[in-house]
Amino acid sequence: MLQPIKRPRIINTSRIIREIWSSPQVSRVEIARRLQLNKSTITNIVNELIEDGLIQETHEGFAGPQGGRKPVNLQINKQYGVVIGFELRPNSYTVVVTDLFGDILFSQTELDSISNTNFKEKLLGIYAATIEKIAWIEPPVLGVGFGISGIVDAHKRIIKASIPLEFTEPYDFYEEIAKDFPVPVFIENDANSCAWGELVFHRFRSLRNFIFILVEFRELQERKKIFEKTAVGLGFVIDGKVYHGLNSSAGEFHSVFISSGQKGQFDIDYEASFTIEENPDVLKKFITELSKHAALFVNSLNLSQVFIGGHIEKYQDIVRPILLKEINQNWMYEKPVDCEIRFSSLGERAVAYGAAGFVLDRLFIDLEFLDDNDMERVGGLFLLPDLKKRVYL
Question: What is the per-residue pLDDT across 110-132, written as a single tens digit (0 to 9) for each?
Fold first, then answer.
């Protein structure tokens, strides 16, 4: 494990980078105030970051009430590099490539067969094929993220279990794949990936407390492995952080309306679930059952937003009124619940896009909050003082 993490300059560099990334158009003076660092320290590190190309100076800000020199604002150079996000499913995968501002440069969905038996082989092959397809993109790849359905310890990069991909025993993603990958690579639960996407790419809105509801409709070919067509996962963000729970299983969904012994996530007949997109009654029953659970979470946790993504987005005209009705019916007071409902508009790309966002959060992580035991598995990007060699953990 690399030891320079203990050096104050490297920690300060990571804090400054994170501050500029989180607050574009911020000045050196403002960074010094927020981080309580000496102005000369800020100036020296920022100048080196500008020379390296990671940071850019933008327009001048406003002088203070007493006049004086106008501050020069700073922002991340979005063309410094790109990140790649993947969603891996049993019968397909989706890839999204974004710049550092979240603008999508490339996306594609391909059919493939992925399971625990060929996981590493397929993952490496998919990555190599993607690199060939995006050869026209000049900025280098800074990191890669994978989103999957299942219980994932994103901190240690371990797949604990995944029903669709048939992982019944823990799989050490870090030791098997990430440790020797050519760039930093991370893995996260699919719904949590979506939550990361909202946090990271909309970080300027200061989102603090929300839920992301991911709804996907599985392919018919998967029927031998699953209990219903619908697949639902929840991503919780509490106080600006994705909540994983004690054993990384927060967000795993199972309806309270299911009868004893019934398999699946919802109180819907197995055969009927596969007609959900053709049968309005089945679709309405599904949305209502899901909305009752969402209402409980919204009101009990006082969430400010509900984000909805995945294949369900095409039915937002049906989802929105039912969800609003259930949220307000679940509320005891006269004043309507103050909760915004938003649809991601990314469809089947929602998880892959979110995985790319998770990568950015890891790359721009504040090293001050990590100890030596965290560094090897948690990851991060920081620059050595000479800024000529980028170090990945």
Answer: 999 999 999 999 999 999 999 99
What is the per-residue pLDDT across 312-367, written as a single tens digit (0 to 9) for each? 999 999 999 999 999 999 999 988 899 999 998 888 899 999 999 999 998 888 77
In the numeric block, the tokens 């004086």 are attached to 68
- CA 231 from chain centre, in angstroms, equals 18
- Go through the domains of the chain in sequence order and give each one's CATH number: 4-76 (1.10.10.10), 82-193+351-392 (3.30.420.40), 205-346 (3.30.420.40)
Whether the CB-CB separation of 86 and 352 falls below 8 Å is answered with yes
Contact 351, 193 (CB under 8 A): yes
CA–CA separation, 184 and 143 (whole Å): 5
CA distances from 315 to 276, 296, 342 (A): 11, 22, 13
- Distance CA(300)–CA(339), nearest Å, equals 12
Please, is 3 exposed, middle or buried when counting C-beta atoms within 10 Å of its C-beta (0-12, 13-18, 19+)? exposed
Query: Which residue type is seen at 235?
Result: G
CB atoms within 10 A of CB 111: 10
Instruction: Report how far residue 320's alpha carbon sits from residue 343's, in angstroms, rounded to the nearest whole number.
Output: 9
**CB 61, CB 70: distance < 8 Å:** yes
The token pair that represents 290 in the structure block: 């899901």
Q: How many residues are there in the chain?
A: 393
Distance between CA atoms of 92 and 74, rounded to whole angstroms? 40
